[in-house]
Amino acid sequence: MTTGLFALDTAIKVVVVLAAMLSGALVVIFAELKIGAHMQHRPGPYYAGGRFGWAQPLADGLKFLQKEDLVPNGADSRVFRAAPYLVVSATLATFVVIPFGPDLVVRDLDLGVFYLLAISSITTLGVLMAGWASANKYSLIGGLRAAAQLIAYELPLLLAAVAVVVQAGTMSLNGIVEAQAETFITVGSFDISVPFLLKGQLIGFAIFMIAAVAELSRIPFDMPIAESELTMGYLTEYSGIRFTMFFLGEYLAIISMAAVAATLYLGGYWAPFIPENLLNAAGPLILGAKVALLVFIIIWIRWTWPRLREDQLQDMAWRWLIPLALANIVIAGIFKVAF
Amino acid sequence: MTSPELMHRSEVAVSVELQTPDMTLNIGPQHPSTHGVLRLVARVDGERIRDVEPVIGYMHRGYEKLAEVRTYAQITALVNRIDWVAGFANEIAFIRAVETLAGIEPTERAQWIRLILSELARISSHLVFMSSYPLELGATTPLFHALRERERVLDLIEGATGGRFHPNFNRVGGVKPAAGGGSTQKKVSSDLPAGFFAGTKLAMDNVLAVCDDIDNLVTGNELIKARTVGVGVIPGDKAIEYGLSGPNLRASGVGFDLRKHEFILPYDEVEFDVAVAEGGDCYDRYVVRLDEIRQSVRIVLQAIDKVPSGPLQAKVPRILKVPQGQAYVRNENPKGEFGYYVISEGGRMPYRLKIRSTSFSNLSILPWILKDQLVPDLVAIMGSLDFVLGDVDR
Amino acid sequence: MPDSPPERATTADDLAEWADGLAERLGASVISTEFATVRIAVARDRWVDTLRAARDDEGLPFFSWLSAIDWAKETAVGEGPAEPEDLVERYEVLCRLSSVRDASGAHFVAEIPKDDAWIDSIVPVWGGAEWHEREAHEMFGIDFRGNPNLTHLYLPDAFEGHPLRKSYPLLSREVKPWPGTVDVEDMPAVEGPSTENPEA
User: Fold this and answer.
1) Residue B38 pLDDT > 80
2) What dotted CATH number matches C12-75+84-175?
3) What is the ipTM of this complex?
4) Chain B residues 93-132 with CB within 8 Å of chain C
């Protein structure tokens, strides 16, 4: 964009996105603490950083940094150490294709959606590595559950996104936003554009959100962690900086999933009545608002509902979500061809 | 390539289930869900439990031996630490047993105050269940609602007795007259604190409100139902065989409540319904306890108006020697039937005290019910039995 | 569930009558019905059959608890029996069965000689008796024949001795004798806090 060198351009974009997303993760961590607390009649963090406790995530991060570096005795040391970095790097790699504005994207790949879903499934590998390498039976059970759950819920996630791709006609995320920005109806002198959510993807959106919460291993799908049964599941033996990596990875993934859902279904960085030349400046804010809404819903669900049992969530994925998602694709295809 | 032996072997390989070795999983004694120091040595095959051996005794304090070297008044102080969630309820049966053997009739006012505090203890215990059971299933929020109201109830108990969990309020012949007794000090007002009854009414309104809150959050929730309906079914005759009592028994269809049959406290003068459910699964045990909170509130509100005035304790000799005899007195504790078998040989201390603790019998059904259950269901079932390790281990 | 009219506790005579009838039908004898506590003596060799008949025919299906009493002339701790000279030293195994329809219940007592301390297990009749018998076994040393798992329940596996026997001492009472009604130690002699600087 600014300099002529492609490598320098990309490097700047990557650094900016990394910095922005990591700060975003901290904000989401703080939001989870505060929102959860207020839903439970508690104040939440109020000490670190003055009245609102905004520095709590920072304080937690510093605390974790200075903890002892523990590797359990019987653990497979290399795999144990590598697992968290795999999870974080795969999650960060998904931000490469997410558009924050028409030009504000690290690289607008033509294979946008395909790349996104493929890269984010590498986190499953990291979770399995963590569960196996910890040399702890609880971690093993957590890893087993994670394997089953994360693989099962990849499919509805994917299939829901495929329906959007069919409707938009392109896999590039920028292209999908532009497809939603196209005029749908002209009423009088107003050109009305409708996001895919309202253009027949209501069920697709629901499937995507459910599958996203399951991919994030959050309540109601947190069997891999299941605090009241498995202590911390595959995370039991992790402490210090490695735990921070997993922790950050989870919250980065929340932002990532919410951003993808906003882009695919809610119109991404586009909003009505914003002139084209301002979209680059207003885009991040608009996308941020949509992401904030979805993140709030994800947090809300986490604090309200209990968790599903492993066989129940497998049931839900294989017998309900996948057939529905397939039907959704068929209907989207019919509408695309017929109209 | 399609020789008969080859085809047969591949057919056989497909039809035989994949045999995986069992894993021995040690759950506890330190574990988020075992309600204390309970150890379960579970043999699991993947997620399915083949069998479970509970190992208890981590909290065994030897109450029955200790009771042989303490006077009856001293035992009262010990005894409310058995089921520490509902401290007051543990004392009732014991003190009634001593009063029966000694032939001392407690005063009317004391009996009614004991009834009110017993029901407050029941509400407190069931609110702990309301908070911890959804938490074990993953719902984190009902905990705060339930415990918030429980604080009000505990404040009431503390105001009257001086202790939130270990009231030590019962005395032979009544309840403890408030501070100011003794030969050197003048007796100041030897009664309940001012505003106790008004405070109780207020707290009962709050408890009913939180019951409705929990109803909305938990009872109709599809996920809770999916986790608890049909899980851990205990048929009525098995419950009787294992000595299950209290809400566990009533959720299995056996509508037996000691408060309707034995009147060691004036329960025959208050109106209330016995909560019964037919299914015997975890959901029924939860619903029965929620109903019991409401019934307890009903009892307390009636009892407040019926408390007569009078002395708090009957005249009792300072050094109490209980005549020779054996008596068994049982009470409907929040967790079930709690009884004391006191053998007195005419001294200041009992010759033998056998404590029939509820959770000991409630827990003994665990090996039977956990066969072939899933690991998450283990947590759901254990939580629904609502036991406390102090009660199990004495 | 409709409220049945509250049953008044049966009078002492009614209780005695009921207990007599029960004991006669079971082929046992009543020890006492004082203090609303019915105690029925059962011979050791008829233990399981009597209890099974009580469950099936007499309407006492609820297994409440099972434990034992050690009758000894001398005790290592606590007060002894009222009349030690008249006492026959023995163990008594008590089992309480009660009804789930009303407040009736009875304690079945079997006497066991101390040098031949065994009795048949009732686990085939009530599964819940297993833990109770294990506890009585480890606390008193009584052998319950037929109990599928007669190992320690409360005590560590390596524990030796039977704590609830009257001959078993309480270690803390060996060190310090039982203090009496009031357990108060005198305040240590204190001169009062020094107000001077120690260095000065």
Assistant:
1) yes
2) 3.30.460.80
3) 0.86
4) 100-101
